[in-house]
Amino acid sequence: MLTVTMDKDAGYLELTVDGPIDVTSYAKAIEAVDELLALHKKIDVVQVIRDFGWIDPSVWWKDLTFHMTHRDFIRHAAIVSDKDWIESVSNFLAPLYPAAVRTFKLAEIETARKWVRAPAAGAGPQEEQHLDFA
């Protein structure tokens, strides 16, 4: 399941993955991104990954083509998960995005939300975890 929460005024999007992702839920996420981008040049994103399930193969293709046309739309991205491999994959892919990217554990979700919304994301005692490829 892919759940979408957004704050239109702030340009904030939160995506929660907790099980299978189908074409319909993915389409809702893309609609939310496009809706926010109609109002903001860049948006702040928190992606919470609780559990992965089956991902419809057509979603992989749609996601690839989406990212080819929406490369520079994220200002700050927080990836939140207790799965250690998520942090490794996030760090590997971060250079592809000209955005500030950080990973957090699920217990740190409120910290992640605050970090993403901060005007100068990355400031503070955890600076060493900040990946800024802008």
Task: Describe this protein's structure.
The chain is an alpha/beta fold and 134 residues long. It has a single domain, classed as Transcription Regulator spoIIAA. It has four helices and six strands, in the order E-E-H-E-H-E-H-E-H-E. Strands 1-2-3-4-5-6 form a six-stranded mixed beta sheet, with helices on both faces.
Overall mean confidence score, pLDDT: 85
Number of domains: 1
Uncertain runs: 121-134
Strand order of the largest sheet: 1-2-3-4-5-6
**Extended strand count:** 6
Give the overall shape.
globular
N-to-C SSE series?
A: EEHEHEHEHE
Characteristic key phrases:
single chain; 134 residues; alpha/beta; Transcription Regulator spoIIAA; six-stranded mixed beta sheet; 4 helices; 33% strand; disordered C terminus
SSE blueprint and pairings:
Elements: E1 2-7, E2 12-21, H1 23-37, E3 43-55, H2 57-69, E4 74-81, H3 84-93, E5 100-104, H4 109-117, E6 131-132
Parallel strand pairs: 2-3, 3-4, 4-5
Antiparallel strand pairs: 1-2, 5-6
